[in-house]
Every structure is written in C-alpha cells, then in structure tokens.
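ok trying again, last paste got cut off:
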Amino acid sequence: MAKKTVAALDVSGKRVLVRVDFNVPLDDHQRITDDRRIVAALETIRSIIDRGGRAILMSHLGRPKGGPEAKFSLKPAADHLSKLLGKPVAFASDCIGPIAEQMAAAMKPGDVLVLENTRFHKGEEKNDAAFAAQLAALGDVYVNDAFGTAHRQHASTYGVPEKLGPGKRVIGLLIQKELRFLGESLEHPHRPLIAILGGAKVSDKIAVIENLLSKADFVLIGGAMAYTFFLAQGKKVGNSLCERDKVPLAAALLAKAGPKLVLPTDTVIASEMTDTAVTRIVDGEIPDGMEGYDIGPKTAAHYAALIASAKTVIWNGPMGVFEKKPFQHGTRTVAQSLADITPKGAVTIIGGGDSAAAIEEFGLADKVSHVSTGGGASLEFLEGKGFACIDLLDNA
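nice, full thing came through this time. structure:
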C-alpha cells in the first residue's frame, strides 16, 4: 500500500522528528570513512527545513553496551551534516531529558538538531513505552527515513510513531525510493528479471533464494555459498568455506529450482586469502588443501551474458573475496555488467551491504539505478517480509 511521504506533510513551524540512519563507519580518530547514509538523508532533511520545519534527527550508531560510549557518539555525524548542508547543525548530548527538551524547544523554522545516539538508552532496542514517550514529546510529527533499521521494532522506529498517532507519521524520501525500487522490481518487474546472490552462507539467504525463485527468471549464485551447493552435487570443495549441515537443504533447493538456479562452473582457487596469493582456475571440483575465493572467468563471462539480456537485476552479495586483488574479477565483472545495461533502460538494484561496498569501491555506484542503504533490511525485503515499522505509518 502506498505511504504518505514527507513531501505531502505540512511541516511549516512544526518540530519534525526524523528517524535517519547515521550508522556510519568511523576510524580510530572519530572520522567518518563512508558518508553515504548521511548524504542519502539530505533530500528529506532539506524538504523539511526549506519549508519552514524544524528537523530533529534521531539515529543509532554501532552497538553500545547499555550506556553512553564516546566512540559511538553522533557528534561527528552532526558536524559532517553541517558541512553538507552548509549551515549550523545543533547537537544535543542526550536524546531525551532536559538538554534535548530545551534545545528542541529553542529551535526556529529551518533549524536542524541531531540527538545523541538512541542506543545509549536500553529502552531503544526494547521499544520501551516510557522511553518512546520521551522521544515523541520532542516532536509534533514523525518521519521515518531509516531504511537500514526499518525491519527492527525499536522505540525510535515503532514506539514513537505509535505514540504520535495517525495523521502525524510518514515515510521520508529515501524510504520512498527504497520501496519503489525494491518493491516494484519484485512485484512488477520488467523481464527478464535476474537475481544475483553471493556471500558466505546459504543459511543467511535460504528464504531469499526461495522467494526469488518464485519471481526471477534466473538466480545466479556466487561467493562461498556456492560451495555448499557444490557439496550437494557431490563435488569436492577442498578447504573452501561451506555449511556441511546445510547440504540437504541445498540439494532440495537445487531440485526445486531446476535450471533457474545457476551455479559457477569454474572457480578461482588458492591456498591463502592474501593480496599476493598464487591462484589457479579449476573447473568443477576443488582439490584438497585449496580454497575457492571467487567465481572463475568462464562463470563471470556467462553471468555477464545473462545480465546483458536482463531488464531488471537485483544483486545482493559479492561473487568472491573482492577486498583482495586476486579475487576481485567476478565481483567486478558483475558490477560492470550492471553499469553497462543501466543506460540501456534496465533497472539495476544493489541490495546494500557488501555489494554496495563493492560497487562503491569500483567507482560504479552512480552507474546503476539504485544502491540500497539497508543490508539486513534489503535481505528481509527480498525474503518477502513486511515491515511493521513502515506498515504503521500513514497511507497516501
């Protein structure tokens, strides 16, 4: 069902509580090493402040253990946001209590305030009613623009809009974009629809594979999860990472999928996972003492050819250990193939997580249709799960 967006919300003069996803990586000196999630929130923030709203931003960062930890402070995110917006951004050293209340009350139209990490309070992840009520009291209306946490019923994602009630809770422009690309591409795809799944574990993506097999024309498999499927086919995998306890499940998926499920035919192998590793290409089985670290060149070419014919592609998970140069080729080929078909009218979607990191590293993030900001959320969406935090919000 279509959701009302911040663009349709009257924000003039109002305190707008916005759940953003500023869970960005920081180095040891508290410097942001990847600001994509902050940049992704700018459109919604500007929509609010340009129309006279007062934007109060809530987010978590990292996994603090039950209380404040300096290394997980959102102050660096607030400072960086100020640079991106080209205007002052206030920062409250707590997300509830007198400081947050006073700073929220003192805001003027067009002001931006970032609250400290919501996970510094145990009530956030527990969706504690009292904690949610304190957060809700800071705003007049609510916007959820944090797709990366939209699958988690926490106080800032569920309790707050529940407290504010109907007519005051909408989605942001980033979530609108995520729902449009991920939702429409799965439910009403231009065909052929190809799904590409990588990563280490079949168990992480069982539900995704099953859901996509009912929707996609082909599901291409890469990464270490391929070796569990190899075992199910009776092939040797050497020392490759695999889930031996999931072999019966992999066999059942193969039987159910038939030719829709496409596995690698050759593999890049080595005895070590380093930047200087000596590699070999093998067809079929992987010898003892060796490990598979990437799809081979024949597989990469085959996948590229299938992708070239696609009208919609959804990619979640790298084809190999792309962080190491000897094992980049498969992931880079997939990324370049998506970049090549996008200008021809294909819809190409990167499902967050390591796939997003890979396409960014290869300099191709702006060459595809959409790079999702939610790794775990994207996976759950691809599984076909509904999100209670989004369902709760106002319908258009």
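cool. The chain has two domains: 6-176, 189-382. The radius of gyration is 23 Å.
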